[in-house]
Amino acid sequence: MNYCGLKLKSDLFLAPMHEYTNVGFRMLCKKYNAGLCYSEMIHVDSFYRDEEYFLNFPEKEKPVAVQIIGNNLKSIGYTCRVLSEYADVIDINFGCPMEKEAESMCGAVLLNFPKKIEDIVKTAVKSSSVPVSAKIRIAGTVKNTLKIGKLIEKSGASAITIHARKIKDNYAIKPDLRVIKELKNNLTIPVVGNGGIDSYEKYKEMKETKCDAVMIGKASLGNPLIFKDIKENKRALVKIKTQTELLKEYISLDKKYNKHYEFSYTKRHALAFMKGFKGSAQIRNKVSESKNEKELLKVIKHIDI
Ligand SMILES: Cc1cc2nc3c(=O)[nH]c(=O)nc-3n(C[C@H](O)[C@H](O)[C@H](O)COP(=O)(O)O)c2cc1C
User: Which residue stretches of the chain have pLDDT < 50?
Assistant: First the structure.
């Protein structure tokens, strides 16, 4: 598919996920058919202070979408200028509901301040030499969300992702597909649908909105094969052997390509991988206790496959 000037092999995207979508995990999902992978959100003020730390995008993983969050126009402009050399798409987060972000007027809270959204998108577009997209949630009503969508498009964004839940909705709430359809019917830029996709059937249902691509978050954690399985319309059984192999593959990719390999990420991913099979709860307990990679690998090595 074509998206933001990129030729992608799949219309299934990996969602940006804080503390999860690091280099190794993005590369693993890409290997198993994710068309485009989004980085964890990068706060523009932190980037402004220490850009070297965040510039961690190996050539081998391209194309990559890098997500930013913030509201300081100077930091946004600076971050977009620098990131343009590394990212293929720069995505702006207007969907994060976390209190910490809301208190500093970043993320989903901005859906209540359309003028600020306009300023942020315009600044990002002006400062970037790559396409800029925005990720939003339902802004109260479908009608109001469409208003925001139109504003984002008019401000120069090349695409929009809609997480079809409201700000206060938790992940158990069924996404409202009407909002995706409404955006798709009324905007000319590509629309990416997001929320609750964990099977071929749900992917198909979301695609009925005519959205250009479907973004997967939680269901990919511990299951990077989901991108391949959905495309092939199969539901693979969770097997210990596959899970341990995938985890080892993640570790090897992250160690090879991540400039700042961190064990805390490996442990978090290991806890996600070690789920869904007999005895997984005990394994997770042991993984939780591991203090370094050596200890963690010892736990995996002793799993009775
Ligand atoms: C652990 C976690 C971290 C997340 N971090 C981000 C983030 O950094 N930026 C963002 O736009 N959304 C973030 N999200 C939201 C996801 O991108 C996605 O919109 C949401 O999980 C809904 O998709 P899903 O139902 O397929 O999980 C996060 C979600 C989870 C579960």
Answer: none
